[in-house]
Structure formats: C-alpha cells, structure tokens
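Subject: design request, 464 residues
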C-alpha cells in the first residue's frame, strides 16, 4: 500500500520533531519545513502531498495563504496549527478549506486521530471523483453504439437536452436501451455529480410503490417500524428515472403529477410536505397516447412527462448498426469471460442481419454472450447459432437440404460449422453428457472429447 505523504510546516523544531516521529511510526512519509520558502522547495519536485499540517504564523509569511496555494496544486487536505487560537482564526481557516484547526499546545494523539480522518476524507474524495469520471466515460452518449441515421437522431437529442432540467419521456420497445439513454442524459448534465435513482414501476407491487417513491413514517402501516426515505428524497438535486411508468396505477399517477407541478410530496402516513429539486426522466414500452385515449393513463400527466420526447428505434430499424454492436459485445465478453472469439463468418453475419430481433439490442447482447462462452475461440459460423436464428437461412441442419448460395461459400468453414452444430446439438440434448452425446453421434467418446477441445466448445464452469 502506498505511503501517504505528509508535510509539516512549523517554525518550532520541537513540534516538527514530535510530529515527524509520531507520523513516521504510523507508516507515513513525512517532510518537515520551518518556513514557507523551505516548504515550497520540498513541494516543487512534482511528487504529491496528501496532507499539510501548517502553522498560521510563519517567519516568512501567512500559513493560510501557503495552505490555499498548496491545496490548489496538490489537492491535499490541511490541518491548521496555531498558538494564537481564536474563533476568527478558526472561521478563516475553514473558509480557506482547512480540514480542521488545532491550538497549541496540543495532544499528539488528538492530532494523529485528526490526521487519520483527514487522509480518509481525501481517499474517499478521490474514490468518488474517480467513480464519477468512470460513470461519465461509461455513459457518454458517444458510447451508445451505432452510426445509423435513426440512432444519430437520438444522439443529437441527448446532446441538446442533457444539460437542461426539462422532463424527458423515453419510449421504445423492450430491449432497445431506454435506461442507457436515461443514464447518458444524467451523466452529461449539470446533475452528474449527484445521484441518478432508478425505479422500475412495473416490477414493484402497486401497494408498495407509493412507499418506495415517497417514503413512509413509523406506524404508517403494518410493518413500518421506522421512518424511511423514498426514492424522490434520495434523488434530491439529482435525477429520478421512472422506468415502465405506463404500468403505474391511476392513484400514483396523481401523486407523480403533483410532484411535477409543485416539487413537493408527503411521505406515506405524514402530512408534512417534503420539497425536492429532482429531474424526472420517465420511460415506457407502451403507447401512452393510446393509453390516454383508453383512460388508463392520465392525459395531464402524459403532457407533463412528454416535454422532451425521445423515441429509441428498434434494432430492426437500425440494422446497419448490427455489425458494430456485434464487435462491441464480442470485445466485451471476450474480456469478461476470458475467451478468444474472432468474429462471425460471412454466412452467420448475413443470418443475423436478416433476423427480425424482437428482443432488440438486449437479445443480441444475450446471444453474443452465449456464443462467446460456448464457442470459446475461433470464428462463429451459421451452425453455431441457435436453431431459431437459422430458420431463414438456406443452409439447414439436414445435409440433404444444404444448398450453395448464389454468391458461394467457404467449403471448409461450412463443413466445420456443420460439424460444430451437430456436436452442440448432441451435447445440449444430453446436458453435456459426453457418453450419451457420443452415442447419439455414433462416435467414440475419446474422439468426441478431442473434437470438443479442438473446437473450444467448452461451456462455462465445465471442464472436459
């Protein structure tokens, strides 16, 4: 574990020596200086300082000014020490960003305890900063895969509306990536440093959803043994993502409408209003305009939600993005599952391009994960695909029905793929019992095992 670098700047040699010994004993790397100029020479070499312990009055200047300067260049925590303790000094030190303030003479153990807290605060601050950076990178709208005209229009909308506080309604079929769009909006907005709180309105029973959204007070209902914050309150200053809002009951629709209008609500069992500043992003796979006509969704709530509508296209309407998505998922799952899939051959890719994708991007992602795991390495061919994806291909699993496409095919690859498919069918039908699979294929078990190894057809968490 890397040592923390601590700078002690004080003109009293006894204090410098005492802190040096105590902090070194704790395992820290300690630098000491008797004045600002000496401290500046120690910190000009490029190595970072994690914590500064500094006297307010130094022989060549103001310790608080030096502290403010060092905090800008090293992003360090600071503990101020002085023999001239006063409320004004404490306030001024805090205003300038000091973690804490101690007066001389001090108890060395108390300073060590403060040092531990200051370094822990710095560590947590760095972790949070790194996490926010990672989230920004992960959910930059450029990372939503696609170059088709349909998805490019979605990118443009995200870029325009992300940094506004306007309510957004994302619509689209299941599996199109509505939550990914919502996260891209949040993490590219001015609220990115705050929480985005997701709520799946369709997955939580109606009688529990109100408490989940707005919280409850103790005794509000049977089992409410203590007060509980709701998702809206947790998301204050950030974003709440109401997924599958089309499944919400009429009673709750009224309460959501009130939050949108007044930015306040009451917890279940309470009459005390709670005010919040929350951006609402909602999503649904239902046709809300039709639901309004059917009287199953409130018209006034629909218009409140539909300030910025974003429709995510189905995968069948952006098929030119399929090769990009396939490459992205292969790279992702090769890394996660420790496999070495090189891609799809021409015939297999053609089959996937012709498929209708009722489950959209989620279905494609799940398929690639399965193929990467089961195939293990090499190139994926037609016969590696599950049967339902082969229904429209000219190459059936019955050898008597095999036809050569007009543009031709790779004979060796086709034969290899056909063999792979037969082996995989036999293995899956026998739950990967090699003896039974070998009997089905009229092969010796050792021959089958060698083929499984050679072709990399080993399923996850299994060995040959």
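Subject: RE: design request

Done. Sequence follows.
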């Amino acid at each position: 574990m890397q040592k923390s670098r601590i700078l002690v700047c004080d003109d009293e040699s006894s204090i410098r020596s005492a802190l040096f010994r105590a902090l070194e004993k704790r395992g820290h790397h300690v630098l000491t200086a008797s004045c600002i100029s000496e401290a500046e020479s120690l910190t000009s070499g490029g190595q970072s300082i994690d914590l500064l312990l500094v006297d307010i009055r130094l022989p060549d200047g103001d310790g608080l000014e030096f502290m403010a300067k060092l905090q800008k260049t090293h992003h360090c925590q600071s503990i101020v020490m002085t023999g001239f303790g006063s409320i004004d000094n404490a306030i001024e030190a805090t205003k300038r960003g000091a973690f804490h303030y101690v007066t001389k003479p001090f108890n060395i153990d108390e300073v060590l305890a403060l040092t531990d807290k200051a370094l822990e605060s710095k560590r947590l601050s760095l972790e949070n900063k790194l996490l926010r950076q990672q989230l920004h990178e992960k959910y930059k709208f450029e990372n939503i895969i696609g170059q088709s005209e349909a998805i490019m229009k979605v990118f443009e909308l995200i870029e325009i509306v992300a940094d506004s506080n306007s309510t957004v309604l994302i619509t689209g079929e299941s599996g199109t990536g509505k939550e990914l769009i919502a996260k891209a909006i949040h993490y590219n907005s001015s609220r990115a440093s705050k929480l985005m709180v997701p709520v799946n309105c369709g997955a939580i029973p109606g009688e529990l959803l109100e408490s989940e959204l707005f919280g409850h007070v103790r005794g509000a209902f049977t089992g409410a043994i203590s007060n509980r914050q709701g998702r809206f309150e947790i998301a204050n200053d950030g974003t709440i993502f109401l997924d599958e809002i089309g499944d919400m009951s009429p009673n709750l629709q009224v309460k959501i409408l009130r939050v949108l209008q007044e930015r306040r609500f009451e917890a279940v069992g309470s009459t005390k209003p709670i005010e919040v500043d929350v951006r609402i992003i909602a999503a649904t796979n239902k046709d809300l305009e039709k639901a309004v006509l059917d009287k199953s969704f409130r018209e006034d709530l629909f218009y409140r939600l539909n300030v910025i509508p974003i429709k995510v296209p189905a995968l069948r309407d952006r098929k030119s993005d399929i090769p990009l998505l396939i490459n992205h998922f292969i790279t992702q799952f090769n890394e996660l599952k420790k496999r070495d899939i090189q891609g799809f051959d021409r015939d297999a890719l053609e089959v996937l391009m012709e498929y209708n994708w009722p489950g959209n991007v989620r279905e494609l992602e799940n398929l690639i994960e399965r193929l990467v795991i089961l195939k293990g390495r090499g190139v994926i061919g037609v016969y590696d695909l599950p049967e339902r994806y082969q229904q429209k291909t000219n190459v059936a699993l019955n050898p008597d029905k095999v036809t050569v496409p007009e543009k031709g095919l790779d004979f060796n690859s086709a034969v290899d793929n056909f063999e792979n498919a037969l082996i995989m069918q036999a293995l899956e039908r026998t739950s990967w019992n090699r003896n039974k699979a070998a009997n089905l294929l009229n092969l010796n078990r050792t021959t089958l095992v060698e083929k499984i190894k050679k072709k990399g057809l080993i399923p996850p968490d299994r060995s040959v």
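The longest strand covers residues 77-82.
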